[in-house]
Amino acid sequence: MTSSSPIGPPPLTGLKVIEFAGLAPGPFTGMLLADAGASVLRIDRPPTPNIHQHQHQTSLPPSDPLTRHKASIPLNLKTPAGIAFVKKLIAGPSDSPPGAGARAGADILIDPFRPGVLEKLTLGPQDLLPLNPRLIYARLTGFRRDGRYASMAGHDINYLAVSGTLSLLGRSHDTPHPPTNILADFAGGGANLFQGILLALFARETCSPARGQVVEANMVDGAAYLATYPRLGLKNGMASRGRGRNLLDGGCPFYDTYETRDGKYFSVGAIEPQFFRRLVRGLGLEGHPGLGERERFDPEEWPGMRALFRDVFKGKTRDEWEVIFDGTDACAVPVLEFGELETDPGREGDQRPAVRLCSTPCLAIKQRTTESASTSDLDPRSNSSSDAVHHGQGAGVPGDGYEGYPLAPGEGGPAMLRSWLGWEMGKDYHVQEGSYVLSTSSRSKL
Q: Domains, the chain, ranges and CATH?
């Protein structure tokens, strides 16, 4: 791609997404869609008065930092008016035929709740798909919807546990150890649901007539699927020695981390012979006994090799080791912390979309810095990608991408409703006890 190549809009531009406010995995799916250009509207509970604060202050819903490029509307789903509002968003204007573009109904709905919650509100697939056959009804649960734990509460560690994945994680002398909540919540949950939505969008466009469908993801199956390779390793011998005793799980001394003299850490992944030789050279251990090809793959030799590496790495600071290994094929690099990635421009910590699309870039994570950036380019709800900056990024959001963008109930909502349906507050809907409700003229069109 050259600087003169034409830049198109983000790939999901024009798609309308309804995201029910929830915990991290569901909002992560919505954020992935929004980063790709979709118009994401989060449905929040109405703010409620807080008797412990000033009478004009309100208590907001639990913090959700995964809000960039999104907007919000407050709806009371415990009332018929709140339910009617959702159904109107799904169906679109009564005079708009399917596929009517900006005035059609929603394309995607994200359900982050336990099985049956939206069904009890008459917002299940059986209620909404007849209103909009093109709708992709995406729902995400922790446990399997048809499994023994379906009705139970859980968190990332629990989903990893029953998937079998947690049994693989941790040191041999310790208990199974969860890798924060990245693996089940985000990789196995939110990202998998995003993948399912994209597959359903593709299927919708290949059907005639175009039809949506229900997309289901759960974090147990997602985590188990991600663990396919190590799980097969239990059978083929690659990971058959027990947790923390194998080549890729920290059991092997040349695939591990080591503390340096300044209390920081260095990572080593020198598996192949040529990489291992370069590691040994950098450590100053050429010719040292026990570091030959035959010895290094003998697990009986690993404790002594690890002790040797540990002592050597403690002899220099992390920066000193980085000077030695930088630019080499030793597969040895520093363990960086997010704090230094945010403050040291030489560390390549600038926030970017995970995937670069050269002709239709996703929206940027950080603020535009080019002189030609316009005010609209810096609007967190803007889907403009004109004059895309380097690294394949489109229009950005205020800030550097290191902090979540707070989104209060109702923020950006009126503008998005105007864009979706041409609605104006006071005419087509109004605020009643903190919740948006349809005006009489809009209700009559349901």
A: 16-227+396-443 (3.40.50.10540), 265-341 (3.30.1540.10)
pLDDT one-digit tens code per residue, 354-368: 888 888 888 888 755
User: What distances in angstroms separate CA 37 from CA 65, 233, 360, 418, one per listed residue?
Assistant: 18, 39, 10, 17
* 400 catalytic residue (yes or no): no
| Exposed e or buried b per residue across 320-359, where buried means at least 16 C-beta atoms within 10 angstroms of its C-beta | ebbeebeeeebbbebebeeeeebeeeeeebbebbeeebee
Catalytic residue (choose from 111, 185, 221, 428) = 185
Per-residue pLDDT, 356 = 86
The total number of residues written for the chain in this structure? 446
- Identify the segments of the chain with pLDDT beneath 50: 1-2, 51-52, 54-61, 369-392, 444, 446
Q: Rounded to the nearest 10 degrees, how much is the dihedral formed by the CA atoms of 21, 26, 27, 33?
A: -120
The pTM assigned to this predicted structure is: 0.88
Q: How far apart are CA 155 and CA 57, in angstroms?
A: 32
Summarised one tens digit per residue, pLDDT across range 210-223 is 999 999 999 999 99
